[in-house]
Specification:
three-stranded antiparallel beta sheet, alpha+beta, four-stranded antiparallel beta sheet, about 25% helix
């Protein structure tokens, strides 16, 4: 027979969720619990036991919970609750970065306050976000288009003509030719 293990980890610290004191607590391990209490259910009081809340995963991977006060439910992202209750934010930064890039790892040791700029650069540096070439949502060209442009330039086709063919500016053709942009795309001509 398996030994009973408490659902509450040792070394886990709990703090009351601001605005929900006496109802919910958040832990430094990224969990949220509902505290035991009596609830008025019509004409009698109903006992509700303490329990860990179920996380709702979002399509982007972040986890959230629903907190209820006075019959009004509200969604909260778990990483934001953990950061607000366990991390100091002296720079008054508004974004929370997951150091390992995993939005499901909401342990306080994996979270840090960041600016939007810091968060985006962290995502690019760790390969979580690709803004190079076709990975850039603003890109009008594909890698195949850029190879064709580079080949056209090698063959002596004028920048103006290439700009018309690909429906882009002549200055973009120039930056591709000088490898100030799309330098990661090579022609591989021997």
């Amino acid at each position: 027979m398996a030994k009973y293990r408490s659902p509450f980890y040792s070394g886990e610290l709990w703090k009351p969720v601001r605005g929900y004191e006496g109802l919910y607590e958040v832990s430094n391990k990224g969990r949220v619990r509902s505290l035991s209490r009596f609830k008025n259910n019509h004409s009698k009081k109903q006992y509700i036991g303490e329990r860990i809340l179920t996380n709702s995963p979002m399509t982007n991977g972040y986890l959230r919970v629903n907190l209820n006060k006075g019959g009004v439910p509200k969604h909260y992202f778990i990483h934001r609750l953990v950061a607000q209750h366990f991390l100091i934010n002296p720079g008054n930064k508004r974004t929370i970065n997951h150091r390992d890039g995993n939005p499901r790892n909401n342990d306080v040791s994996n979270l840090e306050w960041a600016t939007d700029y810091e968060n985006i650069h962290h995502a690019m540096d760790t390969g979580l976000m690709n803004y190079k070439g076709e990975g850039n949502p603003m890109s009008k060209l594909t890698g195949k288009d850029v190879r064709r442009i580079k080949m056209g330039l090698k063959m002596g086709i004028k920048q103006r003509e290439l700009a018309t063919i690909f429906n882009i500016s002549q200055s973009l053709i120039s930056t591709i030719g000088s490898e100030r942009r799309w330098k990661h795309i090579k022609l591989n001509i021997v």
